[in-house]
Design goal:
- There is one protein chain.
- Helices cover 36% and strands 17% of the residues.
- It is built from 9 helices and 8 strands.
- The mean pLDDT is 94.
- An 8-stranded mixed beta sheet has the order 3-2-1-4-5-6-7-8, with helices on both faces.
- Helix 3 crosses helix 9.
- The chain has one domain: NAD(P)-binding Rossmann-like Domain (Rossmann fold).
Length: 247
């Protein structure tokens, strides 16, 4: 941290939002721990916004490295970090944005073996994925552990966001997935993967808008301000059609 800012602290970073929440509400957010699954288009925005709002601790996970095709939407990407681990680059950049946030970076893929280690002790899990199988895995786990699961997805100029809790409809139920009620074995995983064979098109603004909405939804849950977008309600929007902005 530059010497001229050495006297500045956590509360000075978030001072502009302190007319929105009370100090006790912000303290709850400061003491919270959130898991963000993915550090790409959605995840980079989610993580940056959480840090700027003053989250206490982040578990971030992504097994991929940055490449040229990420530059149109992924805020953590830049020419100088091409080929580098997304999770490790994101950890470094967040420490430059808000050094008071503890960031735990995992350069691996989320699976049955590491779920407890990465998500188990978190207050919220945020979906920044482009993988349906992993979404099903994390949605089942968070329901069992009674951890709020914030879902976000994008395609082209369209995006959606909702929140699942232990007492709401499930992710698989809401989207009528073929895995519903089945063991998540290799056959079931293949059925899910068949639903999203192609790489979806996406433009930068929609990734960043949905990511920001996911981040603020977590802020609402922790601080207890505003109304949470609980499933089966889904916040939908299409940047090419303003009439589509609905919930």
């Amino acid at each position: 941290m530059p010497e001229r800012y050495s006297g500045m602290g956590y509360w000075e970073i978030i001072t502009r939002q302190m007319s929105i929440v009370t100090k006790s509400q912000q303290t709850r957010f400061k003491e919270s721990k959130i898991a963000v699954i993915g550090c790409g288009g959605l995840g980079g925005t989610v993580i940056e916004m959480l840090a700027r709002m003053g989250v206490g601790e982040l578990n971030i996970i992504d097994k991929d490295s940055f490449d040229m095709s990420n530059l149109n939407r992924q805020l953590m990407s830049s020419i100088d970090c091409l080929g580098k681990s997304k999770s490790e680059v994101t950890e470094e950049k967040i420490r430059l944005i808000n050094p008071y946030v503890k960031v735990n970076a995992f350069n691996e893929e989320l699976n049955e073996k590491n779920l407890d280690r990465i998500v188990g002790n978190c207050d919220i899990a945020i979906d920044a994925l482009d993988n349906l199988v992993t979404r099903v895995l994390i949605s089942r786990y968070t329901k069992k552990k009674e951890i709020p699961f914030i879902h976000g997805a994008i395609h082209g100029t369209m995006g959606q966001m909702t929140v699942f809790k232990h007492d709401t409809i499930t992710y698989e139920e809401l989207f009528s997935l073929p895995s519903l009620g089945k063991e998540l074995n290799d056959k079931t995983k293949q059925e899910i993967q068949c639903l999203s064979k192609n790489t979806p098109p996406v433009i930068g603004p929609i990734a960043n808008i949905i990511g920001s909405l996911e981040a603020f939804e977590s802020f609402k849950i922790i601080t207890n301000i505003g109304k949470i977008t609980l499933a089966p309600k889904i916040l939908n929007l299409d940047l090419s059609n303003l009439d589509s902005f609905s919930c």
